[in-house]
Write a structure and sequence with these properties.
Layout: H1 2-21, E1 57-59, E2 62-70, E3 82-86, E4 105-113, E5 123-128, E6 131-132, E7 134-139, E8 142-148, E9 154-157, E10 168-175, E11 202-203, E12 207-212, E13 216-225, E14 230-238, E15 245-252, E16 255-263, E17 268-271, E18 286-294, E19 297-306, E20 311-315, E21 321-325, E22 328-329, E23 332-337, H2 351-363, E24 368-371, H3 378-387, E25 390-394, H4 404-407, H5 421-438, E26 444-451, H6 459-469, E27 474-479, E28 489-494, E29 510-517, E30 519-520, E31 538-539, H7 543-562, E32 565-571, H8 595-605, E33 614-617, E34 626-632, E35 638-642, E36 644-646, E37 652-661, E38 668-673, E39 676-682, E40 685-692, E41 699-702, E42 713-723, E43 727-735
Parallel strand pairs: 23-24, 23-32, 24-25, 25-26, 26-27, 28-29, 29-32, 30-31
Antiparallel strand pairs: 1-12, 2-3, 2-4, 4-10, 5-9, 5-12, 6-11, 7-8, 7-10, 13-14, 14-17, 15-16, 15-18, 18-19, 20-21, 21-22, 33-43, 34-35, 34-37, 36-43, 37-42, 38-41, 38-43, 39-40, 39-42
Helix pairs in contact: 2-3, 7-8
């Protein structure tokens, strides 16, 4: 008997060990601490749709069977060869597979599940958070439907495909052209280098099912009125006659403070007692419970929430257009946040991990995040609402790498890409689908349509369409590169230092700095690939050098805010693969600048007042020529028109300008359009010594700490440059 029990015990132990070891993270890349906590049983378990929650649902994340075949293989011929952890892409470590997936491949998924007996006589909806890029779905060997687009959720009513009893089988096939076609692929590229990262293919957000009645609430959209201190709720109800009874309970700190009743076909206005407006410092959420009934019988019950906030644009006392939250100007200081992870790629290893990034940014003193060409799981936006983080949400851009010279519009291109109508229709469908899903979330203040000319087409038509579609938000039509004069913002990208288009030149729009900085510090032991060129837009060696450079950069931003800058987005939150310009390492284990120091630097930016600068030395930012005296390599001085073209690298260019000042100023702003090692003297005192990279825009440097050297009456500014390439040469000085 004892020997039999021993054998039985060994068999059980072997079975348990096999179950424990059938999945594990793959590869030898760096990982986050949350990867160590992950198991197939705890993977992404929270409710995936915070804007509309129900009690009756089931999570289908976990281990699925998978197979990779060619495109021409039919479902009946597929042999499943292993297991993959959903919702992680096949290329990721946390999928347990970590295989390359080619455009010629087809990825297959399969898993069984059972329907709760209590769900009989209800409709069963199968939801996918996101599948990259094109998929087909079968239930019990019957084709349910297909979906195209890798960033948005979609669902199918699978009720008629279900068996009455026993296990149900869902199968999914996926193809993904990545960068071989003109699709919304963001930073994914088959050949990873520079700013292009590992592809993400297949299921990469939560898969789940829910049970509903045939008549059910599909969507609730709150529209706040901060003046009336109320919210108007509109409902999208499936199979509705518009006469279903709706009861809404408004909760404040868990207690019902208001109950309103109405009909499903009507919008309902709810006054909010003792209303608190949503701001970054006071991110107040109001929760609501919604019951829908028919003939006295409840047929649906959901929970949701809303905030009271308004975003718009107003001119300040200096005439600068400012972003306003609840009618008050707010400077938006944020990071470019790509949402990539060394272990999960586009899928964070857990909700806790995803929240960590946002909490750290809040502690650093940022009030904004630019979600860069990625759409996150919906929990992300709920966390942003809860924490008071304002959000710029990018549409996911893309172009075919092989056709980059045509589809990636150059900064000075006169014409957009002449995109095929089919491509434009698909891309716009994906964009408006994203807007429809995410416009619920108050954190999103700005939609970003085109990024740096990637697949940029029909700019004026599309941007104006978005502006008309959502009038409650700010529209950044083109971030960086190829501005077409549309959208609410004139958005420039300027690496590595600060710049903007001055308000007098921005076409009566908001001036913002959509990307800048990118200071790269590669830290041993925390690199994705030590054999790659680990780079930043300005490479930094060590913590003190990074603090010095970053502190100087934030000081420069202060003087831009005074002159009309409304927002600035620093690149970036974390390192990503070979791009080491994050404030945190890719594995999130090191923050490169102390959090409290960052908070102190950023807090100053929210207190800067607008000023009307006086031009002490004119420059060519308005496109006009002006005169100055220069000397090249010590040769005789000559009067030239600036901007002046220097056609030889390595030469030393010197220029002096005398100017008058009839009063003292507290702030000085130096504008440079040069390339090389630059020294500047004000009345004989060296006030600037820095290498300057020439960009498409004039670089701006804050010289306010030298304002006391400015004299009443005659002054002299001397500039000396050792050119490191052919360059334009121009400079100017403003005071306020």
């Amino acid at each position: 008997m004892k020997s039999s029990l021993l054998v039985l015990g060994l068999c059980v132990a072997l079975h348990v060990n096999a179950a424990e070891t059938e999945w594990s993270p793959k590869g030898d890349k760096i990982k986050t601490e949350w990867a160590d906590k992950l198991t197939p049983d705890n993977v992404w378990q929270s409710y995936p749709r915070p804007q509309l929650t129900r009690a009756e649902w089931m999570n289908l994340n976990g281990l699925w069977n998978y197979s990779v075949t060619g495109h021409d293989v039919k479902k009946k011929s597929v042999e499943y060869s292993g297991q993959i952890l959903v919702p992680f892409a096949i290329e990721s470590s946390l999928s347990g597979v970590m295989k390359s997936f080619l455009p010629t491949d087809k990825l297959w998924y399969k898993r069984n599940f059972s329907i709760d007996d209590k769900w009989k006589n209800k409709d069963i909806i199968l939801h996918f958070g996101a599948v990259d890029y094109e998929c087909q779905v079968w239930m019990n060997n019957k084709l349910v439907g297909s979906h195209k687009g890798g960033n948005n959720p979609f669902s199918f009513n699978i009720t008629k495909y279900l068996k009455r009893n026993g296990e149900q089988t869902v199968e999914v096939s996926v193809v993904d052209p990545t960068d071989t076609e003109s699709i919304s692929r963001g930073k994914q590229q088959l050949d990873q280098k520079g700013i292009w990262y590992t592809p993400v293919s297949g299921i990469w957000q939560t898969v789940w099912i829910e049970a509903v009645n045939k008549t059910c609430i599909k969507k609730v959209l709150p529209m706040a009125d901060i003046y009336k201190k109320s919210v108007k709720l509109s409902f999208d109800v499936e199979n509705s006659n518009g006469k279903e009874d709706i009861t809404v309970d408004l909760l404040d700190n868990g207690k019902v403070v208001k109950t309103v009743k109405g009909k499903s076909g009507d919008a309902m206005e709810i006054p909010v007692p003792n209303a608190v407006l949503w701001t970054p410092s006071s991110p107040k959420l109001y929760h609501i419970n919604i019951s829908m009934s028919k003939g006295g019988k409840e047929i649906d019950r959901v929970s949701s929430y809303f905030t009271l906030r308004k975003v718009d644009i107003k001119k300040d006392d200096c005439g600068y257009k400012r972003i306003c939250l609840n009618d008050k100007p707010v400077f938006q200081m944020g990071t470019l946040d790509q949402g990539w992870w060394p272990d999960g790629l586009l899928t964070p290893p857990s909700e806790e991990a995803m929240l960590y990034d946002m909490v750290q940014l809040k502690k650093m003193g940022f009030n904004t995040i630019r979600k860069h060409i990625k759409v996150e799981p919906e929990q992300y936006y709920y966390y942003a609402d809860s924490l008071g983080m304002m959000m710029w949400q990018d549409m996911v851009s893309g172009f075919a790498t092989s056709r980059e010279n045509v589809e990636h519009v150059k900064p000075d291109a006169k014409e957009d890409w002449n995109a095929p109508a089919e491509h434009s229709a698909q891309w716009q469908a994906e964009m408006f689908d994203m807007i429809d899903r995410l416009k619920f979330y108050s954190c999103i203040t700005t939609w970003v349509v085109f990024n740096e000319g990637w697949g940029q087409h029909n700019t004026k038509e599309i941007v104006e369409k978005v502006m008309d579609y959502d009038k409650s938000r700010i529209i950044d039509g083109v971030t960086g590169w190829t501005d077409r004069g549309v959208g609410h913002m004139y958005d420039v990208h300027n690496y590595p230092v600060s710049s903007m288009v001055l308000p007098e030149n921005n076409g009566n729009r908001i001036s913002v700095l959509g990307e800048f900085g990118g200071y790269g510090w590669a830290i041993d032991g925390h690199l994705w690939d030590t054999s790659k060129r680990n780079w930043g837009y300005k490479n930094i060696d060590g913590a003190m050098a990074l603090i010095d450079n970053y502190g100087r950069l934030m000081f420069d931003v202060e003087s831009l805010i005074s002159q009309g800058l409304a927002a600035a987005i620093y690149t970036q939150t974390t390192d990503v693969e070979g791009e080491v310009n994050g404030l945190m390492t890719y594995d999130r284990k090191i923050t490169k600048i102390p959090v409290s120091l960052l908070h102190a630097m950023h807090s100053k930016l929210y207190k800067v007042n607008s000023s009307k600068p006086e031009i002490l030395i004119v420059d060519g930012q308005n496109g006009k020529k002006h005169k100055a005296v220069i000397s090249i390599d010590g040769a005789e001085k000559q009067e030239v028109s600036l901007p002046f073209r220097i056609e030889k690298k390595g030469v030393k260019v010197c220029s002096e300008t005398d100017f008058e000042s009839d009063k003292k100023y507290e702030n000085l702003s130096l504008w440079l359009n040069v390339a090389g090692d630059v020294k500047v003297w004000l009345n004989g005192v060296e006030v600037f010594n820095q290498n300057v990279v020439q960009t498409r825009h004039y670089n701006q440097f804050n010289l306010s700490d030298y304002a006391d050297y400015l004299k009443l009456g005659k002054n002299n500014l001397k500039i000396e440059i050792k050119a490191n390439k052919k360059m334009k040469f121009d400079y100017g000085l403003r005071a306020f």
